[in-house]
Amino acid sequence: SSRFAVVEQGPPIEVFQLNKLFTDDTNKNKVNLGVGAYRDETGKPWVLPVVQKMEKLMAADETLLHEYLPVLGLEQFSNLSVSMLLGEDSSAISEGKTFGIQVLSGTGGLRIGAEFLNKHLKYTTFYYSNPTWENHHLVFVNSGFTQPRVYRYWNPKTRAIDFDGMIEDLKNAPENSVILLHACAHNPTGIDPTHEQWIKIADVMEERKLFPFFDSAYQGFASGDLDSDAWAVRYFVKRGFELVCAQSYAKNFGLYNERVGNLSVVVNDPKLIPAMKSQLTWVVRGMYSNPPAHGARVVANVLADKKLFDEWRDHIKMMSSRVMQMRDALRAELIKLGTPGNWDHIVKQIGLFSYTGLTSKQCEHLIQEHHIYLLKSGRINICGLNPSNVEYVARAMHDAITK
Ligand code: PMP
Predict the structure, then answer these.
(1) Residue minimizing CA distance to atom 6 of ligand 1
(2) Where is the signal peptide (predicted)?
(3) Which terminus has fewer CB within 10 Å in the chain: N or C?
């Protein structure tokens, strides 16, 4: 007998289970459209050349030690991250109303930010978009939020944003609800509010006294431009909102497994920052004590050097334009095949993902019959497409839809 006999098998994590099925599949035509990671035009993961260059420099640097970082991480990394988010000319920064802390990638930023808001501001209600990244719910509930709610976001009929529904749900949210907003490149739908819609969202949130928690996991991937992709966050800051934002460098630096992230905070009164930092220190201390250094050093060294920064910006442009080309290619193939339905949404959507509108049965068919792996919501990672497999994928989608 064992005391552990009480432990029941938990459900699998869909996206990682899908990865395993893909890896184990021996079919030569297999395609992975599941996990949200960049793939180059030959289907391979890509280490950004600027990252490789920096890692070589760091490997040769004998002054780098493996001593603990401070609990809140590398300050230079956080300052650079805050400026990347808010813009170097941000008046919130020059007025001393901002700070950042290094966290364990985007997930860690959400987790620390949420626990801090729950413990110290006593917030208990949070709203996330329907649908959203599947982990938002769990992260907030584990952080102490007891009232999970959704706001409408996707209209399956129009394959576009359900903006009226979203606004109505926000209008009905109780004061001090935390509203989780995707800063850009909404996962999984690939649809962001327009500037006019963001302005309306800000109006309602101000009026209803709601708290914005931005999730910025794809800065640079929506438009290819870091500044355009930060528009919504910068607009909220200009409007005078206090807010937090979890930033991930997993995608835009290709540093998935290094867990490099920043939690940016904007507060109206700079005098409050020392107390806030001290309490964030205790949240981190009780969770993982301090963050790892390697990835944050890579990012900080690149962001701090004008030449390397420009090189990195070119990498982002390259990645995002490859995604856009593959959107065009997939749509063109489907049109060529005469696949029933309108496929404009594939090119209108932005970021890594397309919410195809395929039913879960059609997705199952793609996996079972065609060795094409995708989430049962119909979300596909566009980077899984390349010139050698896009026609195969389109034919398989055609088959799944018309069979
Ligand atoms: N938020 C969103 C919307 C995401 O898509 C992801 C990654 N899939 C994350 C946060 C967190 O990613 P990470 O912890 O790897 O930075």
Answers:
(1) 217
(2) none
(3) N
